User: What shape does this take?
Amino acid sequence: MTRTVRTLLFSFFLLFFAVAAPALVLYAQGYRINWPIEPGKKLIVKTGAFYVKTAQKQVNIYVNGKLDKQTDFIFGSALMENFLPRNYLVEIKKPGYQAWAKNLDIREKEVTEARNVFLFPDRLTFTPVETGASSTIASPDSTKFVLQSSDDKGWNLKLFDISKGVTSGLAAETDFAPKGAELAGWEWTPDSKTLNLSLKEDKTDSRWTLAIDKYPARISKVITAAATSTEELVSKDTATSKFYLGRDGFIYRKDFNSITTKISNAQMAIDQNAKYRIWVFGDYYFIAKNAELYFLNPGADSFEKILDNLTSEPKLSPDAKKIVYASDSEVWVAMAKGKADQPATNAGDRVFIARLSEKIADCDWFNSDYLIFTAGGTVKTAEIDNRDRINIIELAKFSNINNSADPAGAKLVWNPAQKSAYLFLGTSLYKSQPIQ
Assistant: This one.
């Protein structure tokens, strides 16, 4: 080999090293050529990553239609790296479950997360646990149902205990009124221990309490006194105080020392013919005036009307950070506390979840990241991750459970302890298979 050839080879390899070494270092640090380059983007970019965590283990993750990775069998998580900063279709699939899909953006030097994914079964089955009821009401803690049925002596009430799976008698119409009375309304106390009843007897209204936590259940008639302008129009008890909407339109807090404080200068115009309800979640207040829902933010000086046709009352999520409420066509979530995990939100934000043509009812929390509700003769779930489209899943059709029942009277309750949904449809109470 001549001296000239050796010089040329040395120069070539020196030049190759000078070019390749920095390229290898940049590659190891996550830099890539952004090709095909998108308008307004850099040619050399640093990559990002996806992090996925699912409730189910060993699920398949597809990126732009190609299988990329499977979550591990211990934590149900997976980290996928070296993605150019652009938009990707991420799909999560497992046999026997309905797929989850979302278009997500990757940004340079950032990890895009989907850490609360839950896959729901392809088919959810329900079996009857109680029959022969005309109506029912579930306790706030989702552990009990009171069912109303009738016989030749009038109506009677039964208690179905979810944890025990047994039904026991509570009271009969003649226990309240020997000559009979119409059961006009009923409502649980927040502690799920007592049922408040409204009866109509000989054109006279009366109120009663039924203490479910006593054996036998204790029946008491409520004696009410005339109210003044600042007394309670409607109230809600919490662990430390009673909150109420006064007849003057202000919200008050009364502690256990009977000290009453006006919590805001916001005043609601009171309609004496309207029915009011109140819900309190920390510093957030919801007032229902008939079917209209009003919201009072901390520090606000007026009530904001947020819904016209309330069908599902506000409910706090299991992590106590979110509040769901629904009209007959829309579902919303209000953030009681901000959250830093993706998608990040601030306290007080209201997140739009869904607008459906079917009538929505009985919206409840499946967990802190998913909702379960009925809509148009179906049981559905929806995530609250509002990046791209929200995944809304149909779990069951009423017609497959009881094809002769009127779906308008259906009621749904989710019991997290048993991981099962309870559906009152027609004259029967049904329980779903566990969802896990």
Notes: The longest strand covers residues 144-151. The two ends are 73 Å apart (CA to CA). The domain at 31-117 is CATH 2.60.40.10 (Immunoglobulin-like). Confidence is low (pLDDT under 50) at residues 23-27.
